Amino acid sequence: GLDTLGLARILRMCAFSIIRKFQMPNMQHPEIFKLHAEFCKAIANEKRLMIIALLAEGEQSVGELAAAIDVPIANTSQHLNLLRSKNIVHGRKDGQTVFYSLVQPKLYDACLEIRKVLLEDLRDRGIAAGEIADDEIM
């Protein structure tokens, strides 16, 4: 027989396929897919994802970020340089200190939605039933 989780997955897949039919991507402008791929490559590192999450809370210095993600300042600067080169973060110099912030805070919202989907999947498979609270993914 079909269990409740199996039925829920089937219904979800059907709903997504119906939604996709009405929201087909615009293939006349493929450059947006290139930008999307470049963004995904730039954030494809857990430390850079942590930096984005921290900057969603507000502007922070390189030193503050390095301490929060437990990475040397030099490595944190490399991560920030990559994120800056992709226009994900920007820096503001104040004396000797550089403070970073997100260029588009909505990008963090997109990352958060992905984490929510991943957590839901883990819960559906019984891997993270209650160990991870919803507010821990933010």
Question: Could you characterize what this model shows?
Answer:
The chain contains six helices and three strands, in the order αααβααββα. With 138 residues, it is mainly alpha-helical. It has a three-stranded antiparallel sheet with strand order 1-3-2. The longest helix has 19 residues, at 4-22. It is globular and about 60 Å long. The mean pLDDT is 83.
Keywords for this structure?
single chain, globular, mainly alpha, 10% strand, 6 helices, 3 strands, 138 residues, 3-stranded antiparallel beta sheet
Number of helices: 6
- Low-pLDDT stretches are none
Globular, elongated, flat, extended or rod-shaped: what is the shape? Answer: globular
Rounded Rg: 19 Å
What's the structural blueprint in terms of helices and strands?
Blueprint: H1 4-22, H2 31-43, H3 46-55, E1 60-61, H4 62-69, H5 73-85, E2 89-94, E3 97-102, H6 106-124
Antiparallel strand pairs: 1-3, 2-3
